[in-house]
Amino acid sequence: MHAGMDDINIINQVLKGDQQGFEELIKRYQSFVFTIALRYCRNREDAEEIAQDVFVKAYRSLADFRRDAKFSTWLYTIAMNTTRTFLRKAKPPVDSLEKAVVYETVSAQHTGTGADLTEQRSTHQLVNHVIGLLSPDDATIITLFYKAEQSIEETAVIMGLAPNTVKVKLHRARLRLKEKLEQFFADEIKEIIN
């Protein structure tokens, strides 16, 4: 019933008492939230716990969601804050959250039209690895813009920066990502795009 509805309509239904609507939002965003948590804590069980907490907090605060931004932007903020709080309490060794996927960067270089699943997985893993080599700021901005599909303005709100600053940082981050790809994985890139 909710599958064809946009996020805002589902939220309106949930606020009217339709709890099944929130289940649809969870289905849509569970992978997104889990990935954010996993990037920070690197432990599946902790990431699952964080993801659950994120959705509980989102459900409880749904009435506070302003509809002038994307639901995913609002949810990302909750996920980041919940993950940071968890890590502060747990103090485990932390890898950078910012190793998220920028599949489009390598995918855009792919000239073939029928890349098979194995090739896509290889590309995906390569890009994930290279993002792990970037600074946290570079990786965050690339993650927000490409993986989370946030606009420049939404990325600016999340990062607490001016939109023009985000544009400049995104441009520089893309250049550094390209440099890392070329520096460390020249042969793999040739293999992927040929």
Could you please describe the fold and organization of this structure?
- 72% of the residues lie in helices and 0% in strands.
- It has 194 residues and is an all-alpha fold.
- It folds into two domains: 7-90, Orthogonal Bundle (Rna Polymerase Sigma Factor, Chain: A); 98-193, Arc Repressor Mutant, subunit A (Orthogonal Bundle), CATH 1.10.10.10.
- α2 (19-41) packs across α4 (71-90), α7 (136-147) crosses α9 and α8 (152-159) crosses α9 (163-193).
- Residues 92-115 have low confidence and may be disordered.
Please render the helix and strand layout as text.
Blueprint: H1 7-15, H2 19-41, H3 44-60, H4 71-90, H5 103-107, H6 117-131, H7 136-147, H8 152-159, H9 163-193
Helix pairs in contact: 1-2, 2-3, 2-4, 3-4, 6-9, 7-9, 8-9
Organism: Chitinophaga agrisoli
Domain RNA polymerase sigma-70 region: 25-91
Family: Belongs to the sigma-70 factor family. ECF subfamily.
Query: How many structural units, i.e. domains?
Result: 2
Overall residue-averaged pLDDT value:
77
Low-confidence residue ranges: 92-115
Output the CATH class name of the largest domain: Mainly Alpha
Short description:
This protein is mainly α. The chain has helices spanning 7-15, 19-41, 44-60, 71-90, 103-107, 117-131, 136-147, 152-159, 163-193.
Which key terms come to mind for this protein?
194 residues; mainly alpha; Rna Polymerase Sigma Factor, Chain: A; Arc Repressor Mutant, subunit A; 2 domains; 9 helices; globular
